[in-house]
Amino acid sequence: MNSLEKMNNIVLKGDMEEANYKLQHLTEYASNPFIEALPPIFSEDDVLERFMVTPRISEQDKQSETNIRYHVLKRVKNFIQPLPIHFEVERRLSTLIRRGYLARNPLDKSFLERIRALHHLREDEEQAHKYIDERLNHIRSTADSLSIIGISGIGKTTAIERLLLMYPQVIKHQVYEDEPFNKTQIVWLKIDCPYDGSLSTLCKRFFKAIDDLLGTRYLEKFGYLNRVTSTMLLHMTSLASMYGIGVLVIDEIQHLLHAKNDQEEMLNFFVTLSNTVGIPTVLIGTSKAQQLFKGNFRQARRAASDGAIIWDRMDEHSEEWEFFLETLWELQCLKTRIELTEDVRKTFYEECQGITSVAVNLFILAQERALFDENNENEIITSKVLKQTAKKDMKIIQPMLNAIRNNDFAAMYKYEDIMINLDELMMNHKRNVQYEGKVKAAMKERQNTLEYKRLDLIESLTLEISAIGIFDNLTIEKIRKTVNKHVSQTPASIEESKIKSEIIAALIQMNSEVINKPAVVSVNLLPLLKLREKSLKDKNHVYFALLKEGYIKNPQEEFLY
User: pTM of the prediction?
Assistant: First the structure.
């Protein structure tokens, strides 16, 4: 892999918007344009609404041919179920960004002082990294840093990306409180730690991410010409300050373990970025990354000043797992809808061990196996089907799952990506976080799911009834409104077929009323007819009226100029 390939990883990109300043509920957040331009502090309902992704599988989809349903099943890959830990990460991220801006108010003289100090350091690039702490130490920092550690496939990256996208990535400032304020603010930036743990490649990825966002050429300016890593770090620090980066997220931090010489230097840099320069950082890694927080890597502990979120798999008997599985189970696309029996529940957990990505893929693959199995004519998911799917279609990850399933510590050390072996303090912290407000969060999630089911029923009934083809005089919107009215007024316990019959009866009556109703032409709705009537009344040709109103263009102006 050459340096260009290492650098060209897929970078998450968000929205760019003009600054819209909002009244702040907290006095410490007021009179700071970087904070006032952010969205309001999100509530739990906001997180639920923006975070939850439940793909729609309609009744029409379920009646499709096998080859079509195979494609429909792939929608399930997008399934995201909000869990209590997602709310915890959102709260920490929200606080991290806002508090990081407290000591970096662009209206405060200390902001300009920091920029000026970094500019002076760049005059002696080769030696500057030795003095950066000394030169900036007197300028206070309110930035914290956070680490998120968990098993591969648990959903860390998906969650943080979805949460980041709730914020605009770039905000353009022009005027603040009637004064010129020309600033470009980068709210968040997410890059992956290079596979070889190279600090030089990390810097280049940073420059390229900003270039892709703003159309600049920092990679060309600072990333090549045989520049030493310390010089690139200085420019990286300077740009992070200049653009007011709200939080820098570094994913796949476990790759630092592959670094030959850069481990401590990179961790030192993260600490400097947060503690000295004032840029909050979030470090995300698999269980391997815990090694960075032990032994001689004291800087790694400082690189997680706001603590660590330990993202463990869901417990088989937890409310989170129960609700996750029940919601996922609704996304069936088979001939026979199977209820969640105790036997199926037990087998499903046994084969996925509460790891979200494994659970979703097991569910999709088991349905695919049922679709094409000649001996399973009714397309039924059983414990046997789940076991066959895990054994044959997910063979590659069985050694890792077996290590977890059997508490085989020797195997766990061999497959470090699935190893969770954290300090007791961290484990206690994680449990407290997981159970705090669990009942409240679960109830909100259930309400949200019921609302989704109602909307899904409205959409599927609208499509099915429209496809009958007997309501030629009713628009799709009129049909949808009628469906919405009946579904909203009908208890959830009533069978779908009965609701459908009642809606069809109501629509037949509406359709006949439209047929028998005399047509009324409103001149107000037809401006061209109105112009024609006026022209006839004034005894003028309608051409001149159309020309005057701009409906007809002057041919000389149109074709000769």
Answer: 0.69
